[in-house]
Amino acid sequence: MTKQAKQSANLLQGTLDMLVLRTLLYGPAHGHQIGKHIQRTTNEFLQMQHGSLYPALHRLEERGWVASKWETAPGGNREFKYYRLTEKGRKQLVVEESQWKQMSEAVARVMWPTPEES
Amino acid sequence: MKWWQFKKRNTDLDRELRSDLELEEEEQRENGVPANEARYAALRAFGNPTLIREQTHATWPWFWLESLARDLRLGLRALRRTPGFTVIAILVMALGIGANVALFTVVRGVLLKPLPFQDPDHLVMLYEWGLHKNDAPDFNVVAPGVYGEWKKQNRSFSDLALAKDSRVGLSGSGGQLPEKLYSALISWDLLRTLGVQPALGRDFTQSDDSPAANGTVLLSWGLWQRRFGGDRSILNQTIYLDAQPYTVIGIMPAWFDFPDPETQLWTAVYHDWPEEWMTSYNNHSFRVVGRLKPGVSAAQGVADLSLISLRIHNAHLGEPVIYRSANSRPMLDDIVGDIKKPLYILLDATCCLLLIACLNVANLLVARAAARRKELAIRAALGGGWLRLMRERLTESLLLSAAGGVLGLVLAAAALAWLQHTRADMSRVESIHIDAAVAAFTVGIIVLCALFSGLIAAFSGSDKSVLSALHEASRSVSGGNAGARLRKVLLTVEVGLTVILLMGAGLLLKSYERLRSADMGCITQNVLTMHLGIPDARYAKGAQRANFFDTLLERVRALPGVDAAGFVTAVPGQGYWGDWTFTIVEHPLLQQGTVPDAIFRWADPKYFNAMGIPILRGRTFDGGKRLDAADEVIVSQSLANQYFPGEDPIGKHLYVAFVHRTAEIGGVVGDTRYSIGEKPLPMMYFPLNAGEETVGTLVIRAGHDVEQYALPVQRIVAAMDSDLPVSDVLTMNQLLGKRTFDQSFNATLLTGFATLSLLLAAVGLFGVMTYIAAQRTTEIGIRIALGAKREDVMRKMLMDGMRPAVLGLVVGLAASLEAGRLMRDLLYEIRPLDPPVFAAVAAVLLASAAFACIIPAWRASRIDPMQALRNE
After folding, report:
1. Is residue A6 included in any domain, yes or no?
2. What's the predicted TM-score (pTM) here?
3. Comparing C-alpha atoms, which of B483, B487, B485, B459 is closest to residue B473?
4. Phi and psi for A84 in degrees, rounded to 5?
5. Which backbone phi and psi does A46 adopt, to 5 degrees?
6. What is the pLDDT of residues B182-221, one digit of tens each?
7. Which helix (H) or strand (E) holds B839?
8. What gap in Å lies between CA B820 and CA B813, rounded to an integer?
9. Engineering a disulfide at B769: which of A82, B364, B609, B801 sits with its beta carbon 3.0 to 4.6 angstroms away?
10. Can you tell me the distance from the alpha carbon of B562 to that of B560, in angstroms, rounded to the nearest whole number?
């Protein structure tokens, strides 16, 4: 893997963590649901394979930002591994959100300068 | 998560992936995808489950452990596939590591461990030196009189104590035979100075250590067990040493062996030796142990004692051998001084051996990497990380060296057991153990070897041109050149190291041979010697002593088959024993400080004949002159040459002040060496008939099988006095062999190491040649098909193989000049640069190299071109 590719992957990874945490704010969900949700909400813009979620989910769990439990899906007889946001994860989401905001504002300011300032 | 939950977590992940994938599949079906394609559609949307699993694993802690386990598994599998390679590599490593661990253990036990005494850093050994102002510092044993003044006047030492090795006869008792034992004469405070207590009973007190006290003795643990069955009731009982009664006051701990490993009992010196001797400033015979006061350095202590010595020296200018100064060295140096150098040289040799072993294994790994070039290239092409492949390689070499290390440790343990058995005489041999530090050293060596051989191999394969590797492998015209070049460099280094070892071994062997063939100045074949002494106390009168030896020699000579017999203080090769200063009555008094001095011996008239020492001038002692009438002396040729240059010594008189003896020179005899490996020194022989000497060596010469007289002679001794121990029954050859045991031991070990490394180098060369030949099969096939002569092919291959050998030989010879300088102290009458040894080493090496090359070269030249080309 080249160096450049690695950096963009890292950027993406951080973003993915944030998206997962934000999705879980609605309530517990299993991997498939989380993936589908992100895909749907971005109008299929983020064409990601669901599989790339699992390393992120396990990393988040390792850091204690999400917790998991096997539960039967409502209306079905199959068990899924449901992830739920922890208190620590909630705080982390706030941190990441504000970081992302700062970042996108900064990018926006460069890309689309307001007329008064120029 | 803990690592042992790994399995549980793994199944959990599998289940999670499976359930989500099934759901995706269901959804795809619901969206109208045909059932048979739904699974693939789901997989496309989901991604590669195996990859996902691996990526997820990587986020878990302890992931490295899992990957390590996998690397190990892979490594083991790869090694199992090539058992021949694996076994050879492990054996090579085991030899290298085993030799190093064994020698390190010895060096650590003997040289590095602190002495087992209290606060050993403050203990120093003290010596005297310097008769004249400009003498070079030296380490001479101390006269008890000087010790007495040191002890009284010094302000630097909290304790000063005496020790001297000696021998006493322990009388037979309770059905046990009398025996001669190594003992030590010590001052009462020696054990206190060292900070050692007897294991049982009590230490000496000051009152035990005087002529008026009753005799007291401390026994060694070994003697107590062996001779007295470990019975505690021996305490406070009386035993007889040289026919004098001694009360056993204590038993020393088993580990205590000062001043010598052989010491079996300790007696109080001021009790045993007459006061006249103990106040002498000339009678240099003791080792002195000092404990420095806190805050005082050894140099300050020595300066303090030197002042006292100089005062004594100046107050007795008329006396010949009173030293001017004191000297010191750490106690450890004194105890292990003579084995330090050989040990370090042997350690250097084993390091060379280990390096060679590593190079050899690296060589094998490079060959393996070259053989697996295609596999590795494919893996790299499929996305196998470079680091990952490298790590696999290192894991493989780590497995090899770890297995080698474990086996090596076993070898080392066996070698050490053998060493402790055969070298019980070595100082501190009892403190050699495999302990935690040695284990740590072993682990360190294993890692080092793994890194060394693994990295060389890994870098050899790190050639990133994947494509060219694949090309090369598909059309093997003259492939793997890079690997072959590296292997040749490794071989050159290996051969160089081997040459150094061979040179070292050659020098030591030749030096040993010189030593053994050194002319002792006497007959060494078919001569039997035995040590024997009569107790001064029981044989108090001169006449008793003279009669005893007369009768003994008469009876021995009467044994059928005995050609000659004699008695002397010490035979050639038995050691220095002692020297006396003398003056020549007929000569004017020499300047102060230039006093003649010679080794002395007491001998019976027929001793010279028995030992074949030629009488060059005059005659031997007159057997009829006995006791006070025996006033002759016989001198050696070097004494005559040195002190009577250009005049006839016969009829002149020597005066020995120490024993108040004036003697007329009756004859001049040939020189003998007091010690094998030392130059003959001036020697003077006094007549045994004077009835002074009581201990010495009986020599018996016979036409053949002289050993058979050991028993009859001992029977004669027992018949004369049943309480006399006879010891050290050795032929002259055995006696000299014992004295040169060190040299033969070192030479044998080094030769062993050198042979091993020669073997390794030859195997390495053979491997490389076979490999090159295999690589070039097609090329050679084409050449032969095009009309190349087979002899030319063979010559070319041979030259190719010999080049690293010749280069290594040159490098090794240059390096061994330096190594030879290091060994100079161990060599006897041979210079480090010995042309015959050089030539021999070069010949042996080139012959082995040629031998290793010739089979692959011959095989290459026999290649059938059709066969070779069809192999493609």
Report:
1. no
2. 0.72
3. B483
4. -135, 145
5. -85, 95
6. 899 999 999 999 999 999 999 999 999 999 999 999 999 9
7. helix B835-861
8. 10
9. B801
10. 6
CB–CB contact A81 B48 (8 Å):
no
CATH of the domain at A68: 1.10.10.10
Contact B56 A58 (CB under 8 A): yes
Query: For residue B48, what is the nearest residue in chain A, using CA coordinates?
Result: A51
Yes or no, beta carbons of B16 and A81 under 8 Å apart: yes
DSSP A22-67: HHHTTS-EEHHHHHHHHHHHTTT-S---GGGHHHHHHHHHHHTSEE
pLDDT at B454: 83
Nearest chain B Cα distance for residue A118, angstroms: 46
Q: Which of A31, A58, A59 has the CB atom closest to B20's CB atom?
A: A31
Residues from chain B contacting residue A31 (CB–CB below 8 Å): 16, 20
**Domain limits at A68?**
11-112
Q: How far apart are CA B148 and CA B157, in angstroms?
A: 13
- Record: contact A54-B56, CB cut-off 8 A: yes
Give yes or no for residue B592 having a pLDDT over 70. no
Q: Return the closest-CA partner of residue B361 out of B416, B321, B405, B300.
A: B405
Helix axes B732-739, B741-775, angle to 10 degrees: 60
Token output for B494:
């290996």
- ipTM summary value: 0.78
Surface of A (44-83) touching B: CB under 8 A: 49-52, 54-55, 58-59, 62, 78-81
Neighbours of B245 (CB within 10 A): 13
Distance from C-alpha of B137 to C-alpha of B326, rounded to nearest angstrom: 9
Residue B49, chain A, CB below 8 Å: the answer is yes
| Cβ atoms of B260 and B184 closer than 8 Å | yes
Judge whether A48 lies within some domain: yes
Cis peptide leading into residue B259 (ω within 30°): yes
A55–B58 C-beta distance less than 8 A: yes
In a domain, A21, yes or no: yes
| Overall domain count for chain A | 1
Residues with Cβ within 8 Å of B229's Cβ and at least 6 positions away in sequence, in order, are none
- Position B157 scores a pLDDT of 93
Q: Which of A16, A54, A59 to mutate to test the interface with B (most CBs of B within 10 A)?
A: A54
Here the tokens at position B793 are 């092919």
Distance (Å, rounded) from C-alpha B253 to C-alpha B827? 38
Strand partners, B565: B700
Nearest neighbour of A49 by CB, restricted to B13, B47, B60: B47
Q: How far apart are the first and last CA of chain A?
A: 41
- How many Cβ atoms from other residues are within 10 Å of residue B182's Cβ? 18
